[in-house]
Amino acid sequence: MNTKILLAASLIAVFTVGMYAENAVAFAQYMGNVGSEGQTGSYTLEEALEIQARRIAAAEANPSSGSGTPYLDASGVVGAAVIAGAVFGGIAGAFFIRGRSGKYAAMGRG
After folding, report:
1. Is 34 helix (H, G, I), strand (E, B) or coil?
2. Rounded to two decimals, what is the model's pTM?
3. Rounded distance, CA 106 to CA 92, Å?
């Protein structure tokens, strides 16, 4: 009985979050140029295409720069995964070592 209630509550929570997440979309790409008073100006399609063309030209002129995502840096994707793996692996190793000895360890196994 409790499992059915827990499953139903979990499904309701997931669908509720999914329903409200649709309203949290950020439309910040083509809002215009911001003036000194905070107002937005005109940002035409031609200006957007010119900026994108300059970005592509800059990336082609300097291929060694990459995407800008620091994968191997400690603040990047792989670095954060390695650090998290080391921390949680260390904790798991400590529990494993502690679990092999003590009051509740099986007799004759160490």
Report:
1. strand
2. 0.34
3. 20
